[in-house]
Design a protein that fits this description.
By secondary structure, the protein is an all-beta fold. The protein has no helices and ten strands. A six-stranded mixed β-sheet has the order 2-10-9-4-5-6, with no helix packed on it. The chain has a four-stranded antiparallel β-sheet with strand order 1-3-8-7, with no helix packed on it.
């Protein structure tokens, strides 16, 4: 069955960096566009970044452009999110999923940015 396991979240100070990882299994990862999403308390889940199956095309939410970078390693079935210059408003639970054919959500990884 499909498994999406996120990791790398932590408590960091504003201006700090984190690298999130998402290990995927149970579907053809190398053929799938993948997305990173986040959900803050009391808010709806939102798309943070998306990467094409080959890794050559990416899109970002305006709020993270220039600070976050999405990448992938198809040999490892893993998608990454490098987050730099973190802000308190980036505090949320972060999830990955197949962008076009969303599966059940994984447990997520908590990112907390203190001011």
């Amino acid at each position: 069955q499909v498994q999406l396991v996120e990791s790398g979240g932590d408590l960091v100070q504003a201006g700090g960096s984190l690298r999130l990882s998402c290990a995927a299994s149970g579907f053809t990862f190398r053929s799938s566009s993948m997305g990173w999403y986040r959900q803050a308390p009391g808010k709806e889940r939102e798309l943070v970044a998306r990467i094409s199956s080959s890794g050559t095309s990416t899109i970002y939410a305006d709020s993270v452009k220039g600070r976050f970078t999405i990448s992938r390693d198809n040999a490892k079935n893993t998608v990454y999110l490098q987050m730099n210059n973190l802000k308190p408003e980036d505090t949320a639970m972060y999830y990955c999923n197949n962008y076009y054919d969303q599966y059940s959500w994984g447990p997520g990884t908590q990112v907390t940015v203190s001011s």
